[in-house]
Queue: 4 jobs
Job 1
Amino acid sequence: MLRRRFIGAIPVLLGISLLVFFLMHIAPGDPISLLLGDDATEAEIQRTRHEWGLDQPILVQYWEFLSHAVRGDFGKSLKFGEPVTKLVFERLPATCELALSSLLVAILISIPIGVYSAIKHDSLLDHAGMGLALVGVSLPNFWLGIMLIYFLGGQFNLFPVAGRIEYGIQLETITRLYLVDSLITGNFPAFWSAVQHLFMPAITLGTSLAAIVTRITRSSILEVMRQDYITTARAKGLSERAVIWRHILRNAMITIITILGLQLGALLNGAVITETVFSFPGIGDLLIQAISVRDYKLAQGLIFFFAMMYFAVNLLVDLLYMLVDPRIKL
C-alpha cells in the first residue's frame, strides 16, 4: 500500500510543480524590479536577472527548478538571499505547532459535543450543539482572529497578539517546537508564554474545524447507533457508557479520522491567513511575504512543501485506519 501511495504521489507533485511554476511566472510584477527598487538602472536590472537565471526561456527555468527540486534544492530566496530549504525548516515548526494545537482544540470541542448531540438526538442539547456548529463554520477565520485580538488582546489585555514567545525570554531550541523545547529544558516561564501566544491563533483556526467535525461526528454516531450489533451489545447487558465509547464511537472513528486528516491539510492553508493576522512567524506568513515581492523560488518551494505535507497527512490517515479497524489490512 505504501509503495502504491508513493508512486501515485509522483504525478500529483509533478502537476503541482508545473501549475505553481507557470502561475507564479505569469503573475504581474517583476521580482527584480521589486528587489532592486525604483532607483535601479536598466543595466543593474539585466545583470541581476542574469545572475538569478531569470533571463532564460521559461521551459529552461522550469527544468532547472524541477531537476534541483528532486534533490531537495529549491534554490535561494530572492528576498532573503538564503536557501529556500533553510528558510522553510526554520519556519515549519511554528506552523506545525499551530496546526497541531488547533487540531487539539477542535478535537476537545467537537468529539464530546458531537457524541452527546447524537445520543440526545432532537433534544435541546442537540439543537444547541448544531447551532453552535453552524455559527462556527460560518465565521471567517480572519474576522474571528481580528475580534479576538480586539477583545482578548486589546480591551482586556489577556493574551499577546503577535509572535510566538514574549520578547526577552530565553529558550534553548532543540526541536524548534517551543512547547516541546520548554518542557524538555524545564523552562516553565517560556512554556507559559508560548501557550499564551498560541491561544488565540489556535482558537481561530480550531473553531471552524471543530464545527465541521462536530457535525460529522454526530452523523457518524447516529448511523452506527442504528446497526444491529449495537442492539446486540445492549442486549448482552453492557453499560451504556461501554456501548457508546467501546462500540459506537470506535466504529464511527473511520469517518471522523478521515475528516480530521483532510481538515488538518486545510489547517495548513488556513494558517496562511491566521499567521498573517497574528504576525505568527510560520511558513504561512513567509508565503505571503514571498508572493508580495514575487519571490519565485521561495513561493514555489513553500507551496511544494504544502503539497508534500498534504501527502504525508493522507498517508498517516491511511495508517490510522488500520489501527482503528484491523479488518482494513485484509
Job 2
Amino acid sequence: MEFRQLGKSGLKVPVLCFGTATFGGGNEFFRAWGETDVAEATRLIDLCIEAGVNFFDTADVYSDGRSEEILGEAIKHLPRESVLISTKATFPFGNGPNNSGSSRAHLTRQIHGSLKRLKTDYIDVYHMHGFDALTPIEETLNTLDQFVRDGKVRYIAASNFSGWHLQKSIDISEHFGWARYAAHQVYYSLIGRDYEWELMPQAYAEGLGALIWSPLGWGRLTGKIRRGQPLPNVSRLHKTAEVGPQVADEYLYKVVDALEAVAAETGKTVPQVALNWLLRKPTVASVIVGARNEQQLRDNLAAAGFALTSAQVAKLDGASAPQVAYPYWHQRSFIDRNPLPPSYR
C-alpha cells in the first residue's frame, strides 16, 4: 500500500482510507448506507490492516455517535499507535442552541464525547465537518490549537469549506502560530469535479492534502448504472440519489461509457478505475472508500494495486469535463497567467 504525506504535515497516510459511515445504521439516513455491527466491523478492519490500510474515518454525527462506538470496539485489539483515526465535529449533536457549530463550547463537548466513544485518548486527524459562519474563526482555531497542545489531537483538518473559508483559516493560524489545517476532506469524483476549479489549485499552492469522500459519485459509479439499464430493485441509490448532487443522465452515461472502455483495457472493474483515476490527481492524499460487506471492501482495496496511464486518465478527463463556472472559465482563457495543477500524478 502506497503512503503519501498529508499536505505539508509530517504525517503519512495510506492512499486508501476506510470510511465507517456504514457502521451502526442508527437512523433512517444511515441505514440506507449500512448497518454494520461490531463483529462485522472487526472483520472489515482486519481486512484493511491485511491490505496495508490503517486509516479509518468517522464522525460524531454518523448514526448519532454509534459509528464512533463501533469503530472503537473494532480496533481495540490493535495497538493504538498502529492505526490512524479521523473524526469530525460541527454538525448538530443533541438538542439545544449550543449543541452545534464550531464554537469552543460545542467543540470541547464533542472532542471529549468522541474520545470516549472511540475508546482512545487522542485523535490523529480532527476535522471541522463544515464551516461555521457564526463563530469567529479565531475562536475555532484557538480551540483546536489547544486540543493539539493538550495531546488530544495530532492534526487538524477542514471539510467542505469554500476557498476563502480555508484561506482565511490558514492565514489566521499562521499569524498566531497556531496549528494549521493539514488537510481538506472534499467531495470529488469523475462526475463531481468542482474541486478542481479553486480548491485544488489552492491545496496545491498551500500544501493541503485532499481526503476524498464519496469518490464514486454517491454510488453512481459502482457499475450498477448503465445506459439503457434500470436500477437494481434493491439499491441504496434509490435513496441517496435524492439527497446527493444531481447529475444529468446523458452526462453520467458518457462518463460510465468511458469507464467501461478503460476497465476493458485494464481488466479492472468500473469502480476500481473510477477510484484509481482519483489517485492519479494532484493534491489527493487519500481516497475514502466504504463497504457494506467483505466483498465490496476487497474490491475497493484492489483499486490501489495498479496505475492508470496518462492516456487513460486523459480519456476519462475528456468524457467527464464539466462546464466550468465563472470566473474560472475566464481565468482559463489566459492559462499562461493562471496555470492549473498537473493533470496526472
Job 3
Amino acid sequence: MSTTATYTVTGMTCGHCVSSVTEEIGKLPGVSEVAVDLVPEGASAVTVTSAAPLAEPAVREAVDEAGYELAGSTA
C-alpha cells in the first residue's frame, strides 16, 4: 500500500526548478512518484507518492539540496 503526502515548497519559478525538486525527492527510498503544481514566485504544491510515509526532515533535506525551501506539509 502506498501513501501520498503534499508538501509546500517556496522559491520555485520555472520548469528547471520543478526538475530539480522532482529529481532530489525522487532519490528518497520508497518514492514512486513526484508531481509538482508550480506556482511561480509563490508556494508550489509537491505531491509525493511513496511506499511508506516519508520523514519530513528527509524531504526537507532533499528540497534544500535542490535549492528551495520546504514551507510545510499535509498527509
Job 4
Amino acid sequence: MDTGDTAWLLVSSALVLFMTPGLALFYGGMVRAKNALGMLMKNYVAMGIVTITWIVIGYTLAFGPDMGGGFLGGLDYIGLKGVSSNIEGEAGAIHATHAPDTVIMLFQMMFAIITPALITGAIAERVKFTTWAVFTAIWSIVVYAPMAHWVWSSSGFIFAQIKAVDFAGGTVVHINAGAAALAMVLVIGPRMGFRKEIIRPHSLPLTLLGAGMLWFGWFGFNAGSALAANGLAANAFMTTQIAAAVAGTVWILAEQVTHGKATTLGFASGAVAGLVAITPCAGFVGPLASVAIGGLAGVVCYAALQIKFMFNFDDALDVIAVHLVGGVLGSLLVGLFADSTINPATKDGLFLGGGMDQLVAQAIAVVIAFVFSFVVSFILAKLLDVTMGLRVTPDEEQRGLDITLHEEQSYVMAE
C-alpha cells in the first residue's frame, strides 16, 4: 500500500462527492423559487439511492470479472463480497493500484452518484419525485454500470477492443447523462409556458456558488482519475484549471459580441463546459492543447444553446448543450491532441502525427455511448411514464414542486 496514493484517492473521493451538492446549488439557483428545494432534493437523493445500488450490484457489474465479450462484469463482488481494505498483493487485488480496493470502489461510487444527478437539469420543474427516484435506481444499474464496464474496466470492449480512452468520464458521465437527458425531455415534454413567457433563474448567486463548488470538486474528478499521487495527476489538475478558465472567458466574450453584455451565468456555464470537455482529455494532453480544448468548448457549447430552439424541446438548464455536446467534443478532441509521452495508454492524436486511428476509435465510442444511453433511457422513461407517471399535474406544476411534492418552502417571508 502506498499511503500517499491512498490519501489522495480518499481526498479525491470526497471532492467528487462534494460536486453533487455543488450541482444541486448550480441547478437550484437557475430554477424558479417555487421549485428550488425540489431541484436540490432530486440531486441530493442520488447520494442515497446510488450508494445503495452501487454497493449491492452496481460495482460488481462495472468492475467484476468480465462475463464474456467485454459487455458486463460478473456477480463476484455482489454486496462488496471480497472487496478488501487490505492489499494482499497484485495477484489478489481487483485493481492494479497501490491503494486498497475499497478506496477505488468508493472513488468510482462518487462518479456513479453524480451522473444521474446531471440529468435533473434538463427535466427541471415538472417531474414527480417518486418516479425520478425509481428512474435513478434502475438507470444506475442498467445504464451507468454497463457503460462504466465498457470504458473503464480493463476487459471492457470499448477499452480493450475499440481502443478508445476516456480519462475521467467524457463518455461514461457526460455523454451518458446528456443522452439520457435528451431522451427524458422528449418523453416528458416542455414546461408550461415554455417559449411563451420568460422563465428566469431565481438566484444566480446560488448558481455561482454551485459552479465554484463544481470547479473545486472537479480537481478530484479529473486529477483523482490518475489513481495515484503522481505526475499524471498533476498534469490532469493543470489541464483542468486551464480549460475551465479559458472556456469561461471565451463564453462571456461570445456573449459580449453577440448580445453586447457578458453575464455571470455565462461565465459559470462556460467554465462548466470547459470542465466537461477537458474531462476525457485531462490525462492525455498538455497545457497548450488544454487552451485549445477550453476555447473550443466555450464557442461550441455556447453555440449549442440554440439546439433546443431549433428542435423545440425544453432542456430547462441546458444539460444537452453543456454536457452532451461538451462530452462529445472532449471525447473527439482526445483523437486530435492526445500525447503518448504524457500518457502511453493512448496513441498520439492526429495533430501530433499519430494519424486517424485514435480519432476513429473515439468517434466509435461516442456513437456507442450516445445510442445505448439514449435508447435504454427512452424505454425506461416511457415504461415509468405508463406505470407511475413521470410528470406532475398542471396544478402542481403551477403551484411549484416545493409545496406540492415536499410540503416545504425555500423562502418564507416574515409577516
